[in-house]
Amino acid sequence: xLNFPLDKKKKHVTKCHVTHGKMSHLDPKQIPIKKKPFSxxxxxxxxxxxxxxxxxxxxxxxxxxxxxxxxxxxxxxRVIIPLLALLExxxxxxxxxKGLSSIFVVPFLFPSSPLFFTDSVCFLVGNILMxxxxxxGAENVYLLKDGKLSLHLDKQSYESAGLVGKPENDxxxxxxxxxxxxxxxxxxPSMQHGKKGFDRIVYxxxxxLKNPVTWLFCDLGSSNLVSDPLDKHFPVKKTAIPQVTRDVxxxxxxxxxxxxxxxxxxxxxxxxxxxxxxxFSLVMLDSxxxxxxxxxxxxxSRYSPPGQTSVARLVKVVWxxxxxxxxxxxxxxxxFLATPxxxxxxxxxxxxxxxxxxxxKDSMILKPANKSREYVLWETI
Length: 381
Prior knowledge:
By secondary structure, this protein is of the alpha+beta class. The protein folds into 2 domains: 16-73 and 240-380, no CATH class; 75-104 and 121-239, no CATH class. It contains 7 helices and 17 strands. It has an 8-stranded antiparallel sheet. A hairpin with a 6-residue loop joins strand 16 and strand 17 (374-380).
């Protein structure tokens, strides 16, 4: 393999950080959020795809709990509105300002499960996620999370809007791509109709950033409002229904991490993490290179699964849509607690593209088959 020199001037180089550790005892009522691997899931702003890879025998065990009518899939909607609609009194007060004072208790994902707790997760009423269409770095894109509105603008739109922002790119690239980022905390006490700073934002949305755009909208509270401010914009409601692929017969390598006491642990773990990440990537791409009966001319492909392999039957479950990170956080804990210690599973979380090249933040977590609470985490940033 050729080793091309790294361009040190480019700071936005995709990197993959690998963490190998053990989790402490998991209390479903007090799930960790700051420790890995849980923090790796919650650090995502917006998630478009979840991939769960499990052995066939494990799927048979947990199918009734997770993939039947009792399972609550994440809901979201697609709506076409201008930026100004976010500042309308009904929408602004219900979905943004109310998040400061009210708390809504969300039930557990699987009400029929013995692990059901009504006091497990709390979300703020009015806490919503919104993402507009477009490519960051090439078009004007708007994001709303935790009451903070981020506007990714080109130079002309930024100067015409008259809002205070900062360069989106590094100083070395500022003159190559004139992109600007404006961040507005709509939950700030000064953000009220009639205030001078707020009226400046309204003016920019009325006269400059006035074109309607397509948004993905997700209400984390999932509150049933008598009069939903979004209904007058005729949103298209959607549900991220899991797609199950069974009878995937593959050649699987050893998933057991190397022992830390070995003298060659650093080298062994480096190749273990690299080769296993590549193998799981091929599983999620439905590549025939890992199939049991794969035969291909070595001129076209020289890939083979690493180390000693065995034949296994896998099941792949995929969710696609506009999925909130807290939902995936809870799903991971549910699957982990329901999985016997002698079984393994992998969950892969893919975010939306965050650069003009389509790069996104991904996280993959492997729970190996052993009696300890080991995990291996790959974070692509």
